[in-house]
Design goal:
Two copies of one chain form a homodimer. Chain A has helices at 3-7, 11-14, 39-50, 108-116, 146-166, 176-190, 222-227, 229-236, 256-264, 321-327, 346-349, 388-396, 399-413, 444-455, 475-495; strands at 31-35, 54-58, 70-71, 76-77, 84-85, 96-97, 103-104, 121-124, 132-134, 144-145, 247-250, 268-270, 273-280, 285-291, 294-300, 302-305, 316-317, 336-342, 355-359, 365-368, 378-383, 421-428, 461-463. Chain A is an alpha/beta fold and 496 residues long. Chain A is globular, with a radius of gyration of 26 Å. At the A-B interface, α1, α2, α4, β8 and α5 of A face α1, α2, α4, β8 and α5 of B.
Chain lengths: 496, 496
């Protein structure tokens, strides 16, 4: 399945998915148990069945897919202490990707699966220069369009370069001709007028551009540009390799990926099966799990373990100390997402058709849907943050408090925001049953050592999941971990 | 129809469409003739019918919509000297927008019409950092990903800023604290490492990012970045206010806009009706036109004229000299587009899901479709340029020569390109019957004077069309011209 992208040399840009050529399963050694039905687990099941293995997936929760969770009308939101049901209207366009929500073009493993399973994809707007930066201590505390910030920051920096060159500061490195080129370049880069930045039509016009000459807006204050952290965050979004346009999403919800696997795997799936013990033997792996109030067990030839690492200390095992130590070194991530059903797509009336507004308030990010443009209602992401304290604050709130706080922030960007809210859903991953975390990380100084341990097999047991990659929190990381583990597995089988 | 966007204050960003409140038509003064069924003409027909006017549209060609032209299987391509039919497969996904192809979120008039007429919209990728820059004299003549150019150019410029600051060159303007802030800012802007640019993970990694630490690619040569015009063009694309992501397109082809008007106007439409004379009288306008081999005429109370200005000197009229002089001052634009039906979406295997590659060769731009991802085939735009000489060269070629030349250029970016080509279509607007130009312009020094003349009425005759706006070549310009003319018309009617 990975042939085509490799042939065209994506390796230099993304790391090329490895072609997985599994040795056909031998009779009597073809039983595999997969602990956890997240994407890594599902992809292992899919790959192994091609080689003739019989897989059983034990999944603790009521559904497959892990954090690939798309919420729609009536869906159960299994938050510990706050079990609730999604109140969105019954409408296939009103969905909320509470976990992963974006696919860049260089996530080849995921995109290959989408193609293989005929998961329809559409673009998803991520960066939008017409969306806002709201910084309560900058720009007069008023929302400014991201495009203004970007145009002005390019302008001011270019002016500094132009001025330096003009002063001949780089004489050692640059010839007179080079100076000229650099001045010309910085003038275009920043839209300078005789070496000065005086605003740019790149962020629109004070007057109607269709019927009058462009009149550049007054630039933002350079001091504000330099020190607005939220401004910088907004402006850098499209510079991040994983967030550069165009991004994609499955039509109808990210769980289209999960449905693709469900249509294409023949593994035996047991939901509500909570693993309590893992015993790795010389010729087998024994798993004990709780299922419908009873303790059950299964023996397999091999075990792939997609359980979040932070649960492992709570599961009996006979792992080596250094393996357990590595598993226990992860810090659970505390990402969350909050969504609102809006009765009106008011953002479209402001020229915003998708993308993200950024605020220094707790909500941090507001995402606008870019599908079903011009329809009546829409699901907005009302809050998403990378700040630990902030995330813990939201997780500790009641549902109503979360909604109120996210609405308060939205109101500062879009007056009247609250009046459009019809329904609310929140997914604080630290409190989601059977998951209890998202965006795991490990102290940088021990990362390499622990990662190497976890990438290796522990006997017939292989850890998989986004945590066992350099890209936690992304589906591509989950698939990469599975691909790597299957490579180790294959070597083991070949040697056996 | 324009209420909502105005209320939310888009005026500062886009120029707000004016609400058109036309005075109801008076009996005996309600007959309007519209010359040309381009978008300006269609929008005038739609607006006037709300006020009770009876409109007749005389259109010289075989279809409405003007340069809003979407080509599909079997469509007639009415090029003078090269009449031909579109050879694409019969497939609704295989279409080519030969005229306008992109809608930014701030083109409020067009977007309002799409909403009013329920024209379904989807995102269209325009900028893609995974697409290529190909410059035969830079970067070793090999295609480089646009993202590399952007990351490296930001890096190098930031390094210059950092260095200048460090040397204290801005001492007059900046305090010590400001310097620190500026150094911090430029470090983040360019992804510097202790003030030096050494490549950035922002354009990917030499190694598999999912399973290994990011290893930045070697930066491009700064000298190449500074002097590659095509590199600069590619990098600046998203900085242009009209080209910033997210852009949109109607699902199934840009002519969805034309279809929207057709569903919603009740004007009498005469196709193949070629205007030969316009006589403006005190109380009426007389039009003569050729229709089915005969000369016919129509008298109306008012006339809105959507005929390309460069045709006007060839049409008898009794306009004042200064009006005719203004009309005759336009230089016809020579834009063209070339498209290929590709039997395989090879670009997707390179991580490209839409957007534009840029080359210094004649093809100039290659656009990848961003709809129907992962389907079998796709229509690529194989050439589009803003260079006059280049455009004239393509227009003067035979169909086969155009295809060969565009294919040659594509091959330099995508080896094997030619082998994927199944069909070809070209639309050189200078040679398209009843249009003969696209992207009109006027010498800058006379623009304001002539524009004012053409924005005013000539008796009961009003010029409309994208030429009569500051945004020729864009649908929004056409609608703005119509809106303006209706305002002048309304004032005239109120005074009468």
């Amino acid at each position: 399945m990975y042939g085509s992208s490799r042939a065209l040399g994506l390796i230099a840009d993304t790391g090329e998915p490895k072609a997985i050529h599994l040795r056909p399963a031998e009779k009597g050694k073809n039983k595999v148990v997969i602990l956890g039905g997240g994407l890594a687990g599902l992809s292992v099941a899919y790959q192994l069945q091609q080689a003739g293995y019989h897989c059983t997936i034990l999944e603790a929760s009521h559904r497959l897919g892990g954090r690939n969770l798309t919420l729609r009308h009536g869906d159960f939101i299994d938050e510990l202490g706050n079990p609730n049901f999604c109140q969105f209207d019954r409408d296939p366009n009103l969905y909320f990707n509470a976990g992963p929500a974006r696919i860049p073009g260089h996530h080849r493993r995921l995109l290959n699966y989408c193609k293989e399973f005929s998961v329809p994809l559409q673009l998803k707007a991520n960066s939008n220069r017409l969306a806002y930066i709201h910084d309560s201590n900058h720009f007069g505390g008023k929302p400014v369009r991201i495009g203004e910030y970007i145009a002005d920051s390019r302008g001011f920096l270019s002016e500094l370069v132009f001025k330096s060159v003009n002063q001949g500061d780089f004489s050692e490195e640059f010839s007179e001709e080079d100076w000229q080129k650099l001045m010309a370049y910085s003038s275009i880069f920043g839209d300078l007028n005789e070496g000065k930045y005086q605003g740019s039509g790149r962020s629109g016009s004070k007057k109607d551009r269709m019927l009058e000459h462009v009149v550049a807006k007054d630039p933002l204050k350079f001091a504000d540009i330099l020190t607005s952290k939220v401004g910088m965050m907004a402006a850098l979004t499209p510079e991040n390799y994983d967030w550069g346009e165009p991004l994609m999403e499955p039509v109808g919800g990210m769980d289209g990926v999960v449905e693709g696997f469900k249509r294409n795997i023949n593994a035996k799936v047991k939901l509500h099966a909570q693993v309590s013990a893992i015993q790795v033997n010389e010729d087998s792996v024994d798993i004990q799990y709780r299922y419908k109030g009873k303790q059950e067990n299964i023996q397999a030839d091999y075990c792939f373990n997609n359980i979040p690492a932070h649960f492992m200390p709570g599961i009996s095992n006979n792992f080596s100390a250094h393996y357990m130590n590595a598993l226990a070194s992860f810090k659970r991530g505390n990402l969350y997402k909050i969504a609102f059903q809006m009765k009106k797509r008011f953002w479209e009336e402001e020229g915003i058709y998708g993308g993200i507004s950024f605020t220094d308030q707790s909500a941090s990010q507001l995402w606008y849907p870019s599908h079903d443009i011009n329809s009546e209602k829409g699901i907005m992401l009302g809050s998403y943050s990378w700040d630990d304290a902030n995330n813990e604050m939201f997780a500790s709130m009641t549902l109503q408090q979360r909604a109120d706080e996210a609405a308060r922030c939205g109101e500062l960007i879009h007056p009247g925001y609250t009046s459009h809210i019809e329904a609310f859903a929140s997914v604080p991953w630290t409190r989601m049953n059977h998951m209890m975390g998202c965006g795991a990380h490990m102290p940088a100084d021990i990362w390499d050592e622990k990662f190497e341990v976890l990438q290796a097999a522990e006997g017939r047991h292989f850890m998989i999941g986004d945590q066992i990659s350099h890209h936690a929190g992304w589906q591509e990381g989950a698939f990469a971990s599975a691909e790597h583990a299957l490579g180790v597995f294959n070597d083991m089988v070949l040697k056996a």
